[in-house]
Design goal:
Layout lengths: L5 E2 L9 E9 L3 E4 L1 E2 L13 E5 L4 E11 L5 E8 L13 E6 L1 H20 L4 E6 L4 E6 L6 H13 L4 E7 H6 L17 E7 L3 E4 L14 E10 L2 E8 L6
Helix pairs in contact: 1-2
Length: 248
């Protein structure tokens, strides 16, 4: 059977650490039985942080990605070793504390929820997305011009209104009956599990999403549109940034 990692971040994006057991050590890093580390996917960057060993020493995690078996099927989550990190210090069965970089995760959460606000403000399909700790961008399939100041004001209004943000699970059949919920042209919700995770911003937006988010739009803080680019005849790119300097 393929290795599987319990994905604690799916239910609690605010969980910053957990106890875990090493399942496998690969040439890239370590697979755990459970983790708070979000792996690269859906446009959102993977988490970084550290695995704390029982002797109190720290093992650097530079990135997090989804593992794959030889046949290409999913196989656990790989905590990628940082530069110079000694893989030989890890052995299957070893107990560790998985601890994410809280500032990096917080930035991902703020930006990711803001991209959903943008989807509400710009009612066009999305054909590209990138969410990092320093910026985020959405590419919209459209040819009309967009106004940077108007979008920034729209984001600020939705942030100030403090809309609750929550996730829930729906059946694949329910999603099929409501195809308008899928806004992305490039990334489709994962199939085969019988259910799909959806992210709801109360009164604002509802769409499939497996990423990490803040609990209220008020938690986003000051996010602004820094740039709007015409990438092609039918693509308008909106780039987001924080209005205040990011720690670290």
């Amino acid at each position: 059977m393929p290795l599987m990692t319990e994905e604690l971040f799916r239910e609690d994006a605010g969980l910053l650490e957990c106890e875990a057991t090493v399942l496998q050590v690969t040439e890239r890093g370590v697979v755990l039985d459970r983790t708070v580390f979000y792996p690269l996917g859906g446009g959102q960057a993977g988490d970084a942080g550290a695995l704390i060993l029982e002797d109190g020493s720290s093992w650097s995690v530079a990135d997090t990605v989804k593992g794959k078996d030889a046949d290409g099927s999913a196989a656990g989550i790989v905590h990628v070793a940082g530069p110079g990190t000694d893989l030989s210090r890890m052995q299957p069965g070893q107990r560790v504390t998985a601890r994410i970089d809280a500032e990096r995760r917080r930035a991902h959460m703020r930006f990711h929820t803001t991209t959903h606000l943008l989807c509400a403000l710009v009612p066009h399909p999305v054909d590209g997305c990138s969410i990092t700790a320093s910026y985020a961008r959405l590419d919209f399939h459209m040819n009309e011009p967009l106004d940077k100041e108007a979008l920034t004001a729209g984001i600020a209004r939705l942030v100030a209104e403090a809309h609750p943000v929550r996730h829930r699970w729906i059946s694949e059949e329910e999603l099929d009956a409501n195809p308008q919920m899928v806004r992305s042209m490039s990334v489709q919700p994962p199939r085969g599990l019988g259910r799909v995770r959806v992210l709801e911003i109360e009164g604002v937006d509802l769409q499939p999403c497996g990423g990490t988010h803040v609990a209220s739009t008020a938690d986003i803080g000051a996010v602004v549109v820094t740039k709007i680019e015409k990438k092609s005849a039918m693509t308008r790119r909106v780039v987001l940034g924080f209005a205040e300097p990011v720690a670290g």
